[in-house]
Amino acid sequence: MDEMRKKMELILGNRKIFLDDIVDLGDPGCILEEVKVIMGKSFRDMDFHRVEMVHADLVKLYAGQYPGYKECSTGYHDLRHTTDVFITTARMIHGAHLEGMELDKTEVMLALVSSLLHDSGYIQTEDDTDGTGGKYTLTHVSRSVDFMKKYFSEKGFSEEDARKAGQMIECTSLFADFDKLSFASPGTETLARMVFAADLMAQMADRSYLEKLHLLYDEFVEGEISNFSGEEDLMRQTVRFMEEMLLKIVKEMNSVSGYLQSHFKARCNINRDMYMESIEGNMNYLMEILSDESTDYRTKLNRMGILKNLQSPEEGDA
Fold first, then answer.
1. Residue 82 within any structural domain of the chain
2. By the 8 A CB rule, do 198 and 260 touch?
3. What 3-state DSSP class applies to 69?
4. pTM of this prediction?
5. Per-residue pLDDT in tens (0 to 9) along the chain, 318 residues
6. How far are the Cα atoms of 11, 41, 312 from residue 37, in angstroms, in the given order?
7. Residue 231: which of 209, 215, 207 has the closest Cα?
8. What share of the chain is helix, strand, coil (3-state, %, to 5)?
9. What is the pLDDT of residues 168-204, one digit of tens each?
10. What CA–CA distance (Å, rounded) separates 40 from 2?
11. Counted domains in the chain
12. Where are the alpha helices (DSSP H) in 253-306?
């Protein structure tokens, strides 16, 4: 029995297991090592150096250490979100491999790289001194593609690699219509669907997802998205959003998220889709706190101290 299974058995013997128990999701280095192990089980001769290179540069980019760019200024679309999508994509690919799907190693590499670069458009250049990256909410996908193309050119990726990665990143838009897109290859389309599903599922399964919605609201305000009358309205609309996105993943993404259960069974000896469990838990808790009007719902959102310093409406009026 490998170390991961031993670890999971030990945890399972004491309490319910969460995604955070499998790997430290706050540590980009730990996530990279886990992805390397997962990919090694699927593609034993895969050249992983390009993924490692992009991962290293991405960490620098978000820290403000990449030439020409400022530190990440968006609280919701941060490095943690990006690495969450990265490992979720890898888990889907691993599960698909276990179920007999044949995927091209180069395209798999591009899917992993695309998951790392899919939100790079939120990062501001050094000469951009106005506001935060939240102002790019409506344009961040095209900006991410532009960043990827420039980066690929500098790092020696081929034009075909850039074409395929661009399609994968473009498909992370909620407005992408997969049925009307012309993909470079069937594998590119399958992997684009995985990256799209991973982007959504990683967010909604985050144990701090509900707390982070307040950070997302700030980005929406700066990005001039006026669909919400306030933070609480965003929270209430999130219930419908989660339902619609899960339906979209099942119906339009060919249920690629189903590969996650195969991954967890093989990797951790847990025969469950832990992402779906976490998402359902977040959705149920969100409905519960919104239906209880006896107290401010924000007092029931305490993870990571995100809302610790926020005033309740009553305190704000005092």
1. yes
2. no
3. strand
4. 0.92
5. 466 666 555 555 555 788 999 999 999 999 999 999 999 988 888 889 999 999 999 999 999 999 999 999 999 999 999 999 999 999 999 999 999 999 999 999 999 999 999 999 999 999 999 999 999 999 999 999 999 999 999 999 999 999 999 999 999 999 998 888 999 999 999 999 999 999 999 999 999 999 999 999 999 999 999 999 999 999 999 999 999 999 988 887 777 878 999 999 999 999 999 999 999 999 999 999 999 988 889 889 988 778 775 444 444 443
6. 20, 6, 45
7. 215
8. 65, 0, 30
9. 999 999 999 888 899 999 999 999 999 999 999 999 9
10. 14
11. 1
12. 259-268, 274-291
DSSP classification of residue 166: H
As a whole number of angstroms, the distance between CA 196 and CA 85 comes to 9
Look-up of token digits 């498909």: 171
Cβ-contact 135, 156 below 8 angstroms: no
- Domain harbouring 20, CATH code: 1.10.1300.10
- Give exposure, 110-120, as e/b (b: 16+ Cβ within 10 Å): bbbbbbbbbbb
What is the rounded CA–CA span in Å between residue 212 and residue 85?
16
Measured CA to CA, the distance from residue 172 to residue 190 in angstroms comes to 13
Q: Which amino acid is at 153?
A: S
Answer whether residue 234 is part of any domain.
Answer: yes
Q: Which amino acid is at 98?
A: L
| Opening angle at CA 91, ends 90 and 93, nearest 5 | 65
Domain contains 309 = no
Query: Domain limits at 234?
Result: 3-288
Rounded CA-CA distance 298/205 in Å is: 19
Look at residue 300 and tell me if it is in a domain.
Answer: no
